[in-house]
Amino acid sequence: MPSDPALDQALQTSAAAGLPPHNVSPNQGKLLLLLAQIQGAQSILEIGTLGGYSTIWLARALPSNGRLITLEAAPKHAEVARANIAHAGLSEVVDLRLGQALSTLPQIAAEGHTFDLIFIDADKPSNPDYFAWALKLSRPGSLIIADNVVRNGAVIDSSSNDPSVQGVRCFNELLASEPRVNATAIQTVGSKGYDGFAIAIVMADQ
Questions:
Q1: What is the pLDDT of residue 154?
Q2: Kind of pairing, strands 117-120 and 43-47?
Q3: I need a labelling partner for 110 at 20 to 30 A (CA). Which of 63, 68, 152, 191 fits?
């Protein structure tokens, strides 16, 4: 990926603030942008903001009247993300909401939102719950994308005691058995190693 001042600064300020290096890799960020553009997304929900790196990629895919809501539980992360999003010139596009996602998602549903694309990249043990909310906040044709579904191959280990591995395994099983979606997982290799996205298209209403 070529150098990009806003994206580069987002990574630099996040690292300087001590945020964990859990942002998507540059090639994954570009993939998110392309998927949002292919989808023609006008409304995006991101569960897990961190420093706003993936938020910037996704928000750049939106048309001038588009809107992105991103959810972040940690006040420090949200503060860093707000600054990074502002530096990228996207403050008018992005609505960052602070609080535990499982508390914020019912509020978003009560506001009547539905989304063209939903990106799940937060605490992995909660992935099954996030998927349930993603279905409620989507429409037929919506895309649901989840990060870290390969985890260097760890997800094949059914005996793992890692809560993140178990959360992803449960999410993958739900995705495979859910009749309202058509889904696959793609493996990615890049600057952050070996991982992957799950990509699902919603085929029918609840």
A1: 75
A2: parallel
A3: 63
- What does the pLDDT look like over 73-118, one tens digit per residue? 999 999 999 999 999 999 999 999 999 999 999 999 999 999 999 9
Any idea how long the chain is? Answer: 206
CB distance 14 to 78 below 8 Å:
no
Sheet holding 67-72, edge to edge: 94-98, 67-72, 43-47, 117-120, 143-147, 193-202, 181-190
Domains of the chain as residue ranges with CATH: 5-202 (3.40.50.150)
Task: State the amino acid at position 195 in one-letter form.
Answer: D
C-alpha distances out from residue 4 to 1, 35, 53, 149, Å:
9, 19, 12, 27
Rg for the chain (alpha carbons), in Å? 16
Query: DSSP state, 158?
Result: T
Q: Give 158's contacts (C-beta < 8 A, 6+ positions apart).
A: 169
